[in-house]
Design brief:
With about 130 residues, the chain is α+β, with helices and mostly antiparallel strands. Helix content is about 25%, strand content about 30%. It has a 4-stranded mixed β-sheet with strand order 3-6-4-5. A two-stranded antiparallel sheet has the order 1-2.
Length: about 130
């Protein structure tokens, strides 16, 4: 599988912490991960944003591992934030989790099904 980042210069605004697009060729497997919350093994959300973000990416990592993939296979991230103020922490957690890789990313401010879930993240991964 080949991944090529697409970030036009001079014809669109700059993408600082993400990629405008990612071209994927020769992928044979695609994994669509549903919205994942920052819940511990008992299904509880800690009352701390950084801890929830850490758990989200740990949980996504567990799903990726089960599929024989890693965060290097993530080609798209969508985050649902209950407050716009969570955007910077979410960005930092994403970049940390992806080892600095920039992928196409969208963050949306929305409600969640439980008021203790402050962020929900879904990803798409691809493998050769």
């Amino acid at each position: 599988m080949i991944q090529k980042t697409i970030n036009p210069v001079g014809s669109i605004y700059s993408a600082e912490d993400y990629a405008h697009a990612l071209e994927v060729t020769d992928a044979r497997r695609w994994l669509y991960v549903s919205g994942t919350m920052g819940l511990d093994l008992e299904g509880r959300a800690p009352p701390d944003l950084d801890r929830q973000l850490e758990l989200i990416w740990r949980n996504i990592g567990a799903v990726l591992t089960e599929a024989g993939m890693t965060v290097d296979h993530v080609v798209r991230v969508t985050s649902y934030l209950t407050r716009a103020e969570y955007a910077a922490a979410n960005q930092e957690a994403r970049l940390r989790a992806l080892g600095g890789r920039r992928v196409p990313t969208t963050a949306i401010v929305a409600g969640t099904l439980d008021p203790t879930w402050w962020v929900e993240v879904e990803v798409i991964a691809a493998a050769g």
